[in-house]
Amino acid sequence: MINKILAALICIITTTSASETLVIIGTGEKGIYSSILNQKNGTLSDPVFAAEMPATGFLAKHPSKPILYSTGQITRKEGCVAAYKIQDSGKFREFSRQSIMGERLAHISLDSTTKILMGANYRGGSVVSFPIKTDGSIGKLVSIHKHEGSSVNPQRQTKPHAHSIYSGPNNKFAYAPDLGIDKVMIYSINPATAMLTPAGHAATPAGSGPRHMKFGKDGKLAYVLNELDLTISVFTHDASTGKLTNKQIISTLPIDKTKQRMSCSEIRVSKDGRFIYNANRDLDQKGRDSISVFKVSETGQLTRVQTIAAEVWIPRNINMDPSGKWLLVAGQRSNEVPVFKIDPLTGKLSSTGHKISIPKPMCIEFAPVAVK
Known about the structure:
Elements: H1 2-18, E1 20-27, E2 31-38, E3 48-52, E4 59-61, E5 67-75, E6 78-86, E7 92-99, E8 107-110, E9 116-121, E10 126-131, E11 143-146, E12 166-167, E13 173-178, E14 183-190, E15 195-203, E16 210-215, E17 221-226, E18 231-237, E19 244-251, E20 262-269, E21 275-282, E22 290-296, E23 302-309, E24 315-320, E25 326-331, E26 336-342, E27 349-357, E28 361-368
Antiparallel strand pairs: 1-2, 1-28, 2-3, 4-5, 5-6, 6-7, 8-9, 9-10, 10-11, 12-13, 13-14, 14-15, 16-17, 17-18, 18-19, 20-21, 21-22, 22-23, 24-25, 25-26, 26-27
């Protein structure tokens, strides 16, 4: 009888925990916020101010530990990266910080071994790397690589602007889209030292402005979101050499939609690799902000199947929760985070009408809810 009672209690705890997900939101204001996503109906709890850090901007969640990494700012001219322990209360405790020896980063990510924290410096046009210690703390900066060159856009491409950096599927190489030079810079990775070493590049069309990228489920394809011309460049990926080869370029918007004073921000791939999502931003606040959905064919070709209103002004970031049921949007200028439901068969989005208010949300991450 006791065993049956214990089994029932475990079942109740597991069910309760699985029905909720911690949402972590980096902002352009005073720090990081948290909220609880209800998996049953897509509602978000009232946000909690979780950690103070000026210009947190971008986040990276440790895949197996209750640790969060963020960008930050020490002074106007000195940025940093910080590590936080995720607490049961939904608040976070900072336990490690390192200067990046330059202005704040636009993007950070972990390699698949979680031994390297990599970052992209938009204003400085460079990428950096830090070792991650066994306790999750951040070691001192070990490598920095400044990009060189320019491209055709006279306002945005007079110099390098490294916008993001990611490790590839087999963790041999890292890829850094640079908006200013229309290239995805490639680096070899050494997890033992956390060093990055230049290993070539892939080109995107002149004036396209590569911003963010993701790899497909099997790692054979890479999808690069081009901010300036609102396109996605599809590349085949050679795992042994790290080389990217152009396969397809597709507009993120319908052909009859104007791209003037529009730009792109984030791209995501569904867990099963069947669908691609990207955010389109209206710089003039004319209500054109949207999320586009693409279906991935068996050969890797993309076909746009939906473009739906984003319900915010300037969707700086989008992300799907771990269940794949919900997509959240960080509305940087409207100060809102709405929730969309994902159709598992078609990949299409539908509005839930649920949203919360957050000052300048810029990045969304997820973590399991701790059982108290």
